[in-house]
Every structure is written in C-alpha cells, then in structure tokens.
Amino acid sequence: MSGDDRHRARGVPRQAAGPGFGLSVARAPESAGAGGPDPTPDASARPAPAVLSLDEYARGVESGDRAVLGRAISLVESNRPEHRAMADRLVDRLLPRTGGAVRVGITGVPGAGKSTFIERMGTMLTASGLRVAVLAVDPSSEVTGGSILGDKTRMPRLSADARAFIRPSPTGGALGGVARHTREALLLCEAAGFDVVLVETVGVGQSETVVADMTDFFIAVMIAGAGDELQGIKRGLLELVDLIAVNKADGDNTARAAAAAREYAAVLRLVGRRDGGAEPVVLACSALTGAGVGEVWEAARSRVEGMRASGRLAERRREQELRWMHALAGERLRRLAFGSPEVAEATAKAEEDVRAGRLRPGEAAGKIVRAVLARMRAAKEDGP
Ligand SMILES: Nc1nc2c(ncn2[C@@H]2O[C@H](COP(=O)(O)OP(=O)(O)OP(=O)(O)O)[C@@H](O)[C@H]2O)c(=O)[nH]1
Ligand SMILES: [Mg+2]
Which atom of ligand 1 is nearest to the CA of 151? Predict the structure, then answer.
C-alpha cells in the first residue's frame, strides 16, 4: 500500500475542523505561546520552546489544531538535540497520515507577485472548501534577518482565513537545514489534514531545486520584461518547472504578458524535462484581478490527479525521497567530518602552508583528509 493509499484508508481528517481548528487563537500559531518562532535571527539566541508531550503534539496535529501545528513546526525547526529526537519521533508517528495533499512549489523573482498570487489562489481554494497551508523556503532570510516571504501583510485575507495556515520561513541556518525543516513542516501540515500545501521560494541559489524536490507541481511566477524574456530565466529553472505563470496580465500589460507567455512556451518546447515528465504549461494571469488564476490551479490539480491515478505521483515522490536521502547522508557526513576543532585546526594549518608555498595543494588536502579520518574513528554520530 502506498503512502497515499494509507492516507486515504486512515481517513485523514478532511473533516478536521474540529474543536480549536477555527478558533481565533489559530490565526497566529506563530505567536501561540513560547512554541512559536522567535523573531530573533540568531537561532542560538532563541528561547527554548515550551515543549508539549509527544502525545499532545501528535493528537493536536491530527485534529488539525493550527496552534499545535505551529508549535510542532517550531519543534522540528529546533536545533537542540533533545528537540530533534522528539521531532523525529513525532514525524515518524504521523507519517502514515501524510501524503494526501497536493504539494505545489512556487518560485519567482522578488516582486513577481508570488505573495499576491498565493493570496489569490489560496483564498479561491479555501472558498471552495479546501484547506491550504503556505510554507516558505527563504535562504535570504539569513541575510535580511527576517522572512520576506513570510510577509503576511501581502496575504491579509489568507492570514485571517480559518481554512488556511501560513508559516513564515525559518530564519537563519544553511539551505540544507531550512530544506529539512520545510520538508518536515510539509508532512506535519498533511497530517493536520491540509488538502493543498504551497511552498514559496524566492529562488536564490539552490532553493528552487530544493522546493521542486519536495513538491508535486512546480510553478514559476514570471513577469513580462522589456524585450528578451529569457534574460531573466535560468536554464536550470526551465528544467524544473511544470508551469510558468506570466503574472500581471492586466491593464496596459495584458498584451505584453500574452506575448511573453508565447515566448516562454516556444522556449520550453526546446528544453527537455529533467525527469522526462509531461510538457510544462504556460499561462498568463493576474494575481491582482484574479484573471487566469483559476486556470493555473486547474492545471496543477489535473496534472497531480493524473499522476496519482497513473502511479507517477508515488514514483516522483519516491525519487524525491531518494535524492533527499543522499542529500541527508552527505550533510551528516560533512558535519561529522568537519565539525570538530581538530579538523578545523588542520584545515587552517593546511591553508596556511599552501598560501606560504610550503605544501602543494595535494599534500595539504591529504593532511586534511587524515585529520578527518582520525576524527571519524573517534566520532560517534550525534544525531541527524
Ligand atoms: N498589476 C499587477 N500588480 C501585481 C500583480 N501581482 C502582484 N502585483 C504587485 O506587485 C508587487 C509585488 O507583489 P508581491 O506579491 O509582493 O511579490 P512577491 O513575488 O511576493 O515579492 P517578494 O516577496 O519580494 O519576493 C506588489 O505591489 C503587488 O501589488 C498583478 O497581477 N498585477
Ligand atoms: Mg512575497
């Protein structure tokens, strides 16, 4: 039985609007007691979340309680070893209830209209009775000291919507850490009965790949530029997208957006898919007026439903899990190898020697590797 089937068989709480779900406290799970994320950018300076018991977390999430969901996400975002251990148990326990949502990734340059688009599509979905969670992967939040993507003022209606849950990007930390937190947050949202999970990213560095690798359908929100549409688009992105939404197709800009959409469509035909999947779709839309936004959702929904029916969805998710496994193993090994004062010292010494011309790079690298091996022999793995 696939994860999806299990999810259905167990009757994940589609009807989870039970006690507490629609309460006003749930509007701001982030500020729900000490469990919410702290605005302090320095993760090490965060106060410890007041931890619930594993049972309280699990039952709260299962019943769709957004306040508890917010606190559970804070738990998986915590870097404290004791929280990490509990977070692992929580995710394991809830795993049978995951897999049921349509997972949609959304990227686009700053100002393309991602937040406005999510507000528009999200409220459309909640109005149709679906529950929508919004997560963000924002590698730049470390620099800006706060989450631009979590800017709820751009999503005023969705923020106040009892069927929606918006979680700003965790602040600080490397992309690998942010990716893990967001993956686990996504699973928790599914266990809480959300039908659609939207994961937003601004597309800095590798964050597009990271988000494409945790979602079923990946949307790039673009805008018509002056002249050459392709200047602003990375080839790597073209290989990842399932749909390009040329936004701001309204007013004077309508014709330009339509022309840009045609250009993108022409280019996409020339670019192969990374996974040999279905042809990407290009649509023009306006997050401002709502024109075309329903079509974007319909394209995502029908593609994902089709993949679910054919078994391709389970396959895609399995492939994502494999890549994730390799990424995790690499990350853990790197930390195990380089996370010691001895290795840092050996590395600094090797750098000095190469800089001074005392050692050739190959010899110096050998010294670092020997220090790593010595550290590995002494090490005992300290958690994920
Ligand atoms: N005319 C028009 N303006 C839009 C549309 N969508 C968004 N905007 C405007 O574009 C600006 C940027 O929109 P956001 O939704 O904040 O863009 P974003 O991609 O989330 O930006 P970042 O969070 O900074 O990455 C805002 O002033 C919006 O009002 C649209 O469809 N048409
Ligand atoms: Mg935004």
Answer: 23
Provide the whole-model pTM: 0.80
CATH 3.40.50.920 fits 3-323, yes or no: no
Sequence ranges of the chain with CATH classification 3.40.50.300: 3-323
Q: Which of 298, 274, 269 is nearest to 285 (CA)?
A: 298
Distance from residue 204's CA to the centre of ligand 2 (Å): 13
Q: Are 338 and 379 in contact (CB under 8 A)?
A: no
**Listed residue (162, 113, 160, 105) closest to 137, CA to CA:** 105
Q: Domain 324-378 class?
A: mainly alpha
Query: Does ligand 1 have an atom closer than 6 angstroms to the CB of 108?
Result: yes
248 lines ligand 1 (CB under 6 A): yes
How does pLDDT run along the chain (384 residues), one tens digit per residue?
444 443 433 333 333 333 333 222 233 333 333 333 433 344 444 454 567 999 999 999 999 999 999 999 999 988 888 898 999 999 999 999 999 999 999 998 888 999 999 999 999 999 999 999 999 887 665 555 445 555 667 788 999 999 999 998 776 566 777 788 899 999 999 999 999 999 998 877 788 888 999 999 999 999 987 445 565 567 778 888 999 999 999 999 999 999 999 988 888 887 766 556 678 999 999 999 999 999 999 999 999 999 999 999 999 999 999 998 998 888 888 878 887 888 999 999 999 999 999 999 999 999 999 999 988 887 665 544
Beta carbons of 158 and 212 less than 8 angstroms apart: no
Location of each CATH 1.10.287 domain in the chain: 324-378
| Ligand showing the shortest atom-to-Cα distance for residue 288 | 1
Whole-number Å distance, alpha carbon 128 to ligand 2 midpoint, is: 24
Amino acid sitting at position 317: R
- State which of 106, 107, 109, 115 you would mutate to test the pocket of ligand 1, scoring each by most atoms of that ligand within 8 A of its C-beta: 115
